[in-house]
Each structure stands twice: as structure tokens, then as C-alpha cells.
Amino acid sequence: MIISRTPSFKDLNGRLIEESVASIEMLRLGKIQQCVLMRGKNKKNPILLFLHGGPGTAQIGFAPKFQRELEEHFVVVNWDQKGAGKSYASNIPVSSMNIDQFLLDLHELIEELLQRFKQEKLYLVGHSWGSVLGSLFISKYPELIHAYIGVGQVVNMERNEEISYEYTLHKANETNNKKALEQLMKIGNPPYKDQVDLFLQRKWLRKFGGSFHNMSLSKFILSSISFREYSFVDLVKYMANGERFSINNLWDELMEVNLIKQAHTFKVPVFYCVGRYDYQTPHELVVDYFNIVEAPKKELIWFENSAHAPNFEEPNKFYEVCMSVAQ
């Protein structure tokens, strides 16, 4: 079911390019309506599917701004996962909010995309929380994937949060930020007792450049206001409902993730895009993980001017990586 429009592809004379696709649709995945954005200049181009971070950090509203060049060469698909962004609904069963069910939803989505565009495999990008789903999926269903690109790759969540907290505390001391020191010392070392403590640590992480290096969270939010893909209501759902709902119901299970034990041997090529300043998924953990990963081909690509979101902070370089992977 098509629910709204996204800008169409037109030629130099303003005529619609018939072989293009530009659609926002609700698809039934795991018996729940979920929103998918599909954009590409030619339907015959390979599919590039993005798995957003969070949990709950849906990206249909702002991702197209950073993906226009990719749409020239791929059918670019963004999926607002169940409970996030345009896929948030107040009646989503809490029992469905678990990693296994998200992987089943992802499998349904990929089968639908491959059938629709008459392809046998696609390229998969996982960002942060999405990199957990991506890594587990390619381990289980390699026959559906050309290659995997991990961005802000999660490795070991328990150690992840420890290093991230240590970084913010160190930067608070280094900059003599007394307010940060007081608040960070008050919440103490992870695991945190509730979302309030987690969001507080993330606030200081952003302040000290461990989430974004050359842009801000507000830039993402403002960019979504100016695009057709998200309405004001969608933006409210994203900020006030979906993110908190998703974290509330997935965080405990996410904290148990350790891909060193769960998924480090793959039958598809894997590529890791690593922000030099990333301390939301600390880059040193990604390097350690990369060293033990077994795959037909593997590559670690440094983004020197990025933190946790190199695909958004350095979109031109990310475009080059995707083009290289698809060659």
C-alpha cells in the first residue's frame, strides 16, 4: 500500500523516468504494517538496503538527503523498523520486540524486494543497532546477500558501554566540565538503571564529539522537516514515541550481544566503515573484531572526519565505498 509520495525521478525535460522507482509504502512484515522507502533511477540496478540504528533511530525522514548519488546506481531502500518512525504504532505487541523477530521481519522484507525487482541478492548496510541485525542476518542467510557494509559496527555491547562511559568521563575531566563530571559520576558505570541515565551519557558523548564529529543531531532533525518523506506528525512519533518505545523493549537484549561469540565467520564479503572519533561504538572494538572475522573478503575503511555516523558525516566517501563494494 502506497501511503505517500517522495520526489520522482525526471529527465532534463521534466518528464518522469519510467524505469525509476520512488515510493513510500506500508508492507506487512511479521503481521505488522511497517514503512519502506524505495528510491532508484533504474529498477534494474542492484538493491542497497539500509538497516538503521537505535534501536528506534528511524531514518526515512532524513536519509534521502545523504543518498541522492547512490540512487543513481542502486535501488536504495530504507526501512523504518517496527516501532520506529513511520512504523511506530501504539498497539505493537511488546512480545514482538526481540532480535529474532526483527530478523524474521528482515527476511520477509528482503524476499519481497528480491521478488519485486527480480533479483537474487542484494547489498546490505547495517548502522549501529542495524549492524547487529545485519551481522546476524548474513551469518544465517548468506545466499541472499552480495556483500555487507557495517557502519558504526556493534561488537560487544557490555564492553561497548564501558568504554563509551570511560571516554565521556575522561573528556569531562580533560575539559574541566564540572557539570558533566557531576552528572556522569552520579549515574556511575554501566549498565544503567534506566533510560534517563543512558540518554544522559549519550548527551555528554555528543557534546564531547564521540557521536558526531562535524555535524549535530539537530541537523538531522531539521533536515527531515524540509523533506516530503516525514510529516510533522512523523517527526513527533520519531522523537516522542518510537525511539523510547524501541529502546525500552530492546535494550536489555541488545546488551547481551557479543558478536565475537555470536557471528564472526561469514560466507559473504564484509566491509566496515569506521569513524576515527567514534566512541558510541568504540572504534578499537571494531578493529579487534575485524582481526578475528573470517570472510571471503574483508576490509576496514577509516573515515578520518567522522564519529558514529560516517555515512552521514562523509557521504561522498561512503558513496565511493558502496560503488567499490558493488564492482
Task: Describe the structure concisely.
The protein has 327 residues and is α/β, with parallel strands linked by helices.
Strand order of the largest sheet: 1-2-3-5-4-6-7-8-9
CATH class: Alpha Beta
- The percent range for helix content is 40-55%
Which structural category fits the helices and strands? alpha/beta
**Most strands sheet:** 9 strands, mixed
Helix and strand arrangement:
Blueprint: E1 2-4, E2 21-29, E3 32-40, E4 47-51, E5 75-80, H1 99-116, E6 122-127, H2 129-140, E7 145-151, H3 157-174, H4 178-187, H5 195-207, H6 217-225, H7 232-254, H8 259-262, E8 270-275, H9 283-292, E9 298-303, H10 310-313, H11 315-325
Parallel strand pairs: 4-5, 4-6, 6-7, 7-8, 8-9
Antiparallel strand pairs: 1-2, 2-3, 3-5
Helix pairs in contact: 3-4, 4-5
Care to describe what's here?
With 327 residues, the protein is of the alpha/beta class. It has a single domain (2-325), classed as 3-Layer(aba) Sandwich (Rossmann fold). The chain is built from eleven helices and nine strands. The chain has a nine-stranded mixed beta sheet with strand order 1-2-3-5-4-6-7-8-9, with helices on both faces. Strand 6, helix 2 and strand 7 (145-151) form a beta-alpha-beta unit. Helix 4 runs antiparallel to helix 5 (195-207). The two termini are 33 Å apart.
